[in-house]
## 1
Amino acid sequence: GNSVTQMEGPVTLSEEAFLTINCTYTATGYPSLFWYVQYPGEGLQLLLKATKADDKGSNKGFEATYRKETTSFHLEKGSVQVSDSAVYFCALFSNDYKLSFGAGTTVTVRA
Amino acid sequence: EPEVTQTPSHQVTQMGQEVILRCVPISNHLYFYWYRQILGQKVEFLVSFYNNEISEKSEIFDDQFSVERPDGSNFTLKIRSTKLEDSAMYFCASSDGQSLLPYEQYFGPGTRLTVT
């Protein structure tokens, strides 16, 4: 079946530090890959997506590249801000029309 | 900007009681979903709903669970006889079903269900 494994947290960083959250997947077919973010007290929001191999999704300074050869979709941001403190979820969407999520990684950015 | 809303934000119930979690999806959306996240675990798919019927459900979604769209705006998840292990955050989501696949799913803020 489909599954997503992402880096366990929590992750604590200082402002302007580099952030990487690893995500790997197992899927049948050709899944689309997503990163969702959940800010405190809010719902899950789509951060970025990639629908085919070698696509790069980007938004708000975050980037992730769909790597079919390593079945990965690692999230990166070059310089984080306090406002990036949130829980980040990697997810895939495949032929079964539902999202399969990773466990989520809590990121805290200190001023 | 349109958003998915859920009520209540937190529900406490005793084991064996029935609970109904409510969601108002985005108004022109056609697909509706429930997911749940047990504390410290993954967000798990429960059920999807389209055209007034269940289109897919997971093995978690047993006979204790049901979904309904009682009117043109609400989408509910009912748990008939709650168990301790039903304690989780429940997320509702909707998608328009009219754009290209994959349909983007818009999530609500969740309802935290605590079964005592």
Note: The two ends of chain B are 37 Å apart (CA to CA).
## 2
Amino acid sequence: RKEVEQDPGPFNVPEGATVAFNCTYSNSASQSFFWYRQDCRKEPKLLMSVYSSGNEDGRFTAQLNRASQYISLLIRDSKLSDSATYLCVVTETGGFKTIFGAGTRLFVKA
Amino acid sequence: GAGVSQSPSNKVTEKGKDVELRCDPISGHTALYWYRQRLGQGLEFLIYFQGNSAPDKSGLPSDRFSAERTGESVSTLTIQRTQQEDSAVYLCASSWTGNTEAFFGQGTRLTVV
């Protein structure tokens, strides 16, 4: 089983749609959680951290369920500019090893 | 520098040759990571450093791959006797600690012909 698993997609959605990405991780002792975004042929960049209580940043909402070892990202009112690959990221206990999921590709169309 | 710097940005090498990829992390970042990304694929973890130590080398694909870090700063990833399957973008990232945001360099695109 992979340490971090994501649905690879692609997700093809119209502008204005709401889309949700899911991610599961295998190490119950994992410590920190993030969502990164990677544009085509670019390096990944932090989108948002994921907190136990859930957190929101504008149109983006992240949730963490430690019991189920599950992380989610919800994008509301999708924009064309949201088209990218979204990477689920988990840091193991001790904060030393950062593991990236393979990413979920999103295409938002007009 | 202001960000993570990798060099060279592009490298074309002949099969069987050795290559050395360099990463200059953000000053003061203790954690440094190397990842590989093949075309159209996700990030593949290779190795990370905490200071100059590499607690986990399990991601290195074969003994042709090695990495070192000195002065808690610059890191080099060396690939010996390159093979065509080594062709990929090699990304380096650094962070204050493993629990904080990782900043990536723009990568080295390696092509083995």
Note: Chain B has a mean pLDDT of 93.
